[in-house]
Design the sequence.
């Protein structure tokens, strides 16, 4: 059955439909290290799509005005405009600013914020990140695997829990 068909329905236990609880997010961020900690801090606190985070350049980050400009995405191995084709500027919360400033001190690329460490180019896809970084971290913490994209759902969930309009987040 084609996924777009009405006959196709995702299982409630599908990992892509879940999000990390506030406690899980805290444990994950306390135990993540290096560039991956900065990546997760950004993802959990801004709700960026995985591809948008992977396509960030240092020039997109304005530490003085606490903003991040989202203007491209890494999808299917190609840099493209964002999913909505809109350049968006988002507020950079202080934990994100601190994590990115710390990451920048040891960053291997002067252009890309989160490049593949072997090529210094954006990751082709998120699978190697999940396999090498996310799954081992979750296993060490004895947490159920949820997709890397679930960081976006987790952000949205926290916004709703704090009675903020999701459109302003």
Sequence:
């Amino acid at each position: 059955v084609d996924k777009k068909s009405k006959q196709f329905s995702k299982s409630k236990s599908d990992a892509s439909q879940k999000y990390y609880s506030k406690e899980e997010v805290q444990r994950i961020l306390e135990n993540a290290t290096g560039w991956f900690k900065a990546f997760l801090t950004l993802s959990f606190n801004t709700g960026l799509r995985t591809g948008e985070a992977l396509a960030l350049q240092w020039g997109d980050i304005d530490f003085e005005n606490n903003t991040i400009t989202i203007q491209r995405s890494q999808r299917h191995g190609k840099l493209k405009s964002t999913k909505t084709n809109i350049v968006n500027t988002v507020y950079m919360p202080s934990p994100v600013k601190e994590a990115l400033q710390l990451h920048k001190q040891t960053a291997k690329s002067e252009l890309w914020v989160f490049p593949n460490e072997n090529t210094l180019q954006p990751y082709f896809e998120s699978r190697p990140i999940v396999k090498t970084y996310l799954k081992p971290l979750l296993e060490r913490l004895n947490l159920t695997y949820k997709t890397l994209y679930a960081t976006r759902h987790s952000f949205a969930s926290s916004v709703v829990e704090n009675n903020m309009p999701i459109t302003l987040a």
Summary: The longest helix spans residues 127-140. The first strand starts at residue 61 and ends at 62. Helices lie at 22-31, 34-46, 50-54, 94-106, 127-140, 150-161.
